[in-house]
Write a structure and sequence with these properties.
The chain is mainly alpha-helical. It contains three helices and no strands. It has a domain of 31 residues. It is 59% helix and 0% strand.
Length: 85
């Protein structure tokens, strides 16, 4: 995912520990965990809402390949055979 390997994550964690400092690091880690938890909840809620709303739509009625007559379109007239010659 995103090209992150264990080694890269370790380097980022080490840099965070050096830059932020050992005293403030637990607070930042807690905030980051809360943010990730909120994002995961938001993604799950969005996924559920999209699934619910897409189930409520009659997709066959929106398929242009279906030959139902639409009130917006006049009915198709039957083709008349052209006379030979």
């Amino acid at each position: 995912m995103f090209g992150l390997t264990f080694e890269k994550l370790f380097v980022v964690a080490l840099l965070a520990a050096v830059i932020i400092g050992p005293r403030r690091l637990p607070d930042y880690a807690t905030r980051a965990a809360e943010l990730l938890r909120r994002l995961a909840t938001l993604a799950a809620d969005t996924r559920q809402r999209v699934a619910e709303e897409s189930d409520a739509v009659d997709w066959r009625s929106l398929d242009p390949r279906q030959r139902r007559e639409s009130p917006c379109r006049p009915p198709a007239s039957p083709r008349r055979p052209t006379p030979p010659g």
